[in-house]
Amino acid sequence: MTKLYLMTASELAPLIEAKQLSPVELMESIMNQIDEVDPEVNAYITILEEQALEQARHAENEIMNDLYKGPLHGIPIGIKDNYYTKGVRTTAGSEILQDFVPDYTATAVKKLQCAGGIMTGKLNMHEFGGGLTNTNPFYGDARNPWDLQRTPGGSSGGSSAALAAGLSTLATGTDTFGSIRVPAALTGTYGLKPTYGLVSGYGVAPLAWSMDHAGPMARSVSDLAIMLTYMAGYDPDDPGSIKAPVPEYYKYLNKGVDGVKIGVPRYFVDRSEPEVINTFQSALETFENMGAEVIEIEIPKLDIASYAGYLVTIGEGSSYHYNQLRHQPEDFASDVRIFFNTGTLTTSPQYVTAQQVRRSLNEAFQEAFENVDIIATPMTPYPAPRFKEDWISQNQEIIRDYMPFTAPAAATGIPSLAIPMGRSSEGMPLGMQLMSNHLTEKLLLQVGNAFDHYN
Amino acid sequence: MDTAYIVPQGLALQGIPVIREDVPYIQHMLNTIYELQTAVDTNPEIHEEVPMVVVDPDVIIYD
User: Fold this and answer.
1) A330: nearest CA in chain B?
2) Is CATH 3.60.20.10 the right assignment for the domain spanning A4-251?
3) Is the ipTM value over 0.90, yes or no?
4) CB A159 within 8 Å of CB A20
5) Which residues from A are below 8 Å from B61, CB to CB?
6) Mean pLDDT in runs of 10 for chain A (455 residues)?
7) Fold of the domain spanning A261-454
8) Which residue of B has its CA nearest to A329?
9) Which of A21, A159, A174, A237 makes a 20 to 30 Å CA pair with A187?
10) Count of domains in chain B?
């Protein structure tokens, strides 16, 4: 039988509801695994063992008194450390915020907690979200559980590492230019960047307001669907929040892919390493075997997406941190200071052009979605690399190489799902990206779930 | 473009302390952006688009 700390919420919830499994037993299993493994993986910045166990006992009492709340009740959830948590230190991976204790909780976290989810602690991340490697000179690098010498991806690297090592059942992430999807792909876990504004960003430390997305990370598509059901919804405190219906996504997962049209732009395949291409081709054959129609398509202007990804992120990011850059630049990690300082040297016309690129790109995707339901690509062009001594250059290289894959969905605000599709010759996970039109998460999760169950 | 000159001058003009070790990395990143800009320059019609803004109902389709 799978160990408790590796089971999915979808597997655990029925046991908890039927009173066959205590949330206390589950939380103890997770905490024991954290004690054993986290000193090497370093997924957590703050571990909340006592608080989590106390809440697990509370959940157990509620459930024993027939007050079961639903599939998140009693489920351990790691929270990325850029989500504000009332009374619990929130660093955003930065020394600058090492003593910051918020007096309110981010809306998305509050929603998960109201549904019965229990916070296990605050997860490691690339400082302020400014990188894809999760090197962190202040709290230590998060490491890939598949090979501790490799990056777990970033910026939500603590989230992906925790999920891959069984240090939490679910986790939150944020994604501005790939920070949910890249870590998921590099660790064999799952991540969803939802439609822009579907999940509230209120109480999440910003990187770039107009491209920041909060979203779920997990060990299955069905778990992402459970999380999204409870995280999503209009929030008047977030100016970017949208008023859109929120279905119970996890109840619509088993419709299969029969008749679904999947478009595959060559652009992404041409930028991938051969073993990634081979694994991706096998994944497409799987979709065809399941009844989907796979079509090669061309989306114009994909080559300008990275420009928008860079300019918007460093432009808005440097604006948010401008005062600190001028007065205490040495307080940033070197790679993140360089990232934001580059933003101070870009121009207003460049920033506005980037926002024009986004609209143009959105139009191109809308045209594509007139002919296909889903767009499939490799999630990254190569698997998790080993940490290099020059970690600043490495972060820049990975951003440059991965940005063409992550920026299109980030810039257009369409949902994008990262799911495992196989392993490299060295045994490292390889991920696939599935994108769909705005607010079609129900279909996207359905397609992802079909692939998940076929394999 | 002579980014070696632009980087320290541009930072200093804004009152941002120049950390010498950072300069080559900033140059490298600016060069990456300049390379990407060439693709944008081949699509001049982009400059006629209305830019997206932070709160923009057009970002999504309500259906």
Assistant:
1) B19
2) no
3) yes
4) no
5) 366, 437-439
6) 94 98 98 98 98 98 98 98 98 98 98 98 98 98 98 98 98 98 98 98 97 98 98 93 95 96 98 98 98 98 97 98 98 98 98 97 98 98 98 98 98 98 98 98 98 89
7) Amidase signature (AS) enzymes (3.90.1300)
8) B17
9) A21
10) 1
